[in-house]
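Deviation from plan, reported transparently: 6-O-phosphono-beta-D-glucopyranose complex.
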Amino acid sequence: MTTRAPDSATQTAPVEEARTPPSTSGIRPNPLREGLRLERMAEPCTMVICGATGDLTERKLAPALYNTLLGGFLPPEFTVVGFARRELSDEEFRAHLREGINKHSRNKPVTEAIWDSFARGIEYHRGDFDDPAAYVRLAKRLERIDRDRGTAGNRLFYLAVPPSLYPEIVNQLDRAGLAASGGRRRTGSTRGWTRVIVEKPFGYDLGSARTLNHELGEVFDEDQVFRIDHYLGKETVQNLAVFRFGNGLFEPIWNRRYIDSVQITVAETVGVEGRGEFYDATGALRDIVQGHALQLMAMFAMDPPVEFHAEDLRDEKLKVLRGVKPMSPAEVAANTVRGQYVSGWVEGEKIASYRDQPNVAPGSQTETFAALKLSIDSWRWAGVPFYIRTGKALPSRVTEIAVTFKQAPLALFARAGVPQIDANVLAIRVQPDEGILLRFGAKVPGQGLQIRTVNMDFRYGSSFAVDSPDAYETLLLDAMVGDASLFTRDDEAERAWEILDPILAAWKDEAGGPLHFYGAGTWGPPAADELLERDGRAWRRP
Ligand code: BG6
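Because the crystal trials were delayed, the predicted structure below was used instead.
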């Protein structure tokens, strides 16, 4: 794994130390290699982006590759082949990537010298995904690139296409001899690795996820498949493991004995602008909860892995998901709330009702907000509710995990007439304004006894004078170095659907409760507040 475990000294380290590239393995970077940027340098390889003319390439992949190159983590041999249907020349494709970088990169505009060397390794391959000849030509192109640019037969295929196209593409890759790794490769060289990155959503329900896993498994070994969930690449999510397992303080209290409840919020201010067609068929549960929110929960709640290796980590995350028992329809009605936004104001801007968005059905029943109360039936977490909420068109963009601790056993100060002190809260802010906040009671200075809740606040921005890499930078580099720690394994993806399928089914026929409406710019329907009020709790207003 990468930063999953930097030396705890970096927490207070001066800037120079903070720049040290993270380790690929083990809990501490090897001191002999510290400072060598080579540590996580990708091997020479070719990345083939299937669906390269789409939005993802422009917004995420091109900026991520450029920044990774800028950071010194890509070798000069690195090559990109954009594979798509549209008629484009190499030059036009390069211009498309350059535009994406200039618009969306955290470092912009492009530096000419860096761009020139990057651009030399960018090609475009026109072809239809169902045309075998396109793959035969692709195979020849990749062999030529191996010879000319020294990419050593290493290939990373990125499926930036709708999941319905995955089976076609992977089968075609297989038929053209492009799917096997190392010694298994049928044509050309026997050297080199082949890996495939698949985008979310991974399936539509349990059945389709199983089918997808099966279809991928027919062609690739599981260790070649990298299912991306970009939330796992976010710096703060990786820091969760360091925070918990790198410090002696927190792990002993990370359990039902000290923790009252946990809230996971993934709130967005944006509506579904321009994505109506995708979103109306998807909804908040599939879009955010299936991957992002359940993965956050698993990273938060897992037991310490034996080692920081992909399989150990994913075994532990899977155990958490297995502890979440699928709900009956009555449990769905009691423990979930779904909502859809109607027009309102968000950050000073008027947002039209969800149903009035382009490509959204007029009477759409799709949820743009979901709130769930889950429990993890495990020794560590039995009886601790995990409240998850996510929504579009909410008042602020914030992703956080907030832990509320149990009250002190004795209300000593209440006896002295001081009102009950708020419970301690530890809020892990995933984005924006990444950091960790601890709320506790402190005596107000003066002769009397008055207690007020105060904050102890760690902020990445002020503690480290470095920019965090974008999640895609971390994850692309991880895939190139073969580190699957931050990618979802087949069984994890299926287990997430096992949890969500009954909720989706109960919502479909209303047995799971009605669809509520909420004004854009509010924190969701009142029913979401009632979900917690029934337990004597309230959502945090981040
Ligand atoms: C994507 C969802 O996976 O994550 C989007 O499909 C959502 O609907 C996005 O807006 C949020 O990602 P981030 O990194 O901006 O929080």
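The longest helix spans residues 283-301. We consider this an acceptable substitute for the interim report.
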